Amino acid sequence: MVLGGGEADGTGYAPAGRDAAMDAALEALYGGGGGGRPAGERSAGERSAGLGGSAPRVARWLGDIRTYFPATVVQVMQRDAIDRLGLSTLLLEPEMLEAVEPDVHLVATLLSLNKAMPDTTRETARAVVRKVVEELERRLASRTRATVTGALDRSARTARPRHRDIDWDRTIRANLKNYLPEHRTVVPERLVGHGRSARGVRKEVVLCVDQSGSMAASVVYASVFGAVLASMRSIATRLVVFDTAVVDLTDRLDDPVDVLFGTQLGGGTDINRALAYCRSRITRPADTVVVLISDLHEGGIRDEMIKQVAAMKADGVEFVTLLALSDEGAPAYDHEHAAALAALGAPAFACTPDLFPEVMAAALEKRPLPST
Asked: Which of the pair, 257 or 191, is modelled with greater confidence?
């Protein structure tokens, strides 16, 4: 890739064997050639390449790059092939899906093709999506449960605990000023402890997720986190997705794959309508956290959207705005709307999946968010 190909390299060196195969796989995607013959049908010095529109050829290429490159590089090359060469429609063929390296971006592409997917491909696509979802759950679930449970326990602390609920470490630290040297003891003027463990729901969380095309990776992560939170008995979790319509997917949260196939990526955006729906479902505002995941490009009534957030804040709801829930960093977003929300005390920022448990813990405890 650095030296170029054919007469452009200037070295007179022709790669052979494994080097030639790797070179051909890269050339097929990044070289802009149109030959389209598989690597094994070209001479070592011939650089003309391409993937064309042939499913068998692309399937062989996918197998080649998985042989020659690590998984992280394969995922980047697959994404580039879909974007640069328009290979999305070929993913509707089962043999293609069996050849790809599953990742979040591939899942997002499959979801965008959901309505066009033939029945012969649907089960294979679900298997690919499930593999990615299970990997994300293994990566994120334990930490999310531990962090959120800790936040719930801390938020339940009381200054008048029963004896068995006293947090002695925190009580001693809070009363060190009352240390009596002559008695070598601390007089606990103020007790610190946990409230009695509640068997029922202690907090409510509403995930309100923009399913426009630009938010595809965020939809995937939100579905996984929604399922994890829903598995915790002390939290009542609601998942709402929206474009110009609003769909409540709460009853599918036991299986995030079902949630994902219940979304419809693309279309317009009506944040105001989605927030109005979410507000109508809130029963305990002071114990509720609403997480809006959107780039804030509002297609509905802008002033009404801001009013919905202001009303929820006035009711006591803790409101969090995430411009993205993905590994990609800060997305393109509506700066004017973000500034308006920040003025209401609901600052908007992008969040990586690894940071999300900390954001939720802070919101549940009503303390400053870690990204603000």
From this structure: 257
3-state secondary structure the chain: CCCCCHHHCCCCCCCCHHHHHHHHHHHHHHCCCCCCCCHHHCCCCCCCCCCCCCHHHHHHHHHHHHHHCCHHHHHHHHHHHHHHHCCHHHHHCHHHHHHCCCCHHHHHHHHHCHHHCCHHHHHHHHHHHHHHHHHHHHHHHHHHHHHHHHHHHHHCEECCCCHHHECHHHHHHHCHHHEECCCCEECCCCCCEECCCCCCCCEEEEEEEECCHHHHHHHHHHHHHHHHHHCCCCEEEEEEEECCCEEECHHHCCCHHHHHHCCCCCCCCCHHHHHHHHHHCCCCHHHEEEEEECCCCCCCCHHHHHHHHHHHHHHCCEEEEEEEECCCCCCCCCHHHHHHHHHCCCCEEEECCCCHHHHHHHHHHCCCCCCC
Return the pLDDT at 66: 80
pLDDT digits (tens, 9 = 90+) for 313-355: 999 999 999 999 998 766 789 999 999 999 999 989 999 999 9
pTM for this predicted structure: 0.73
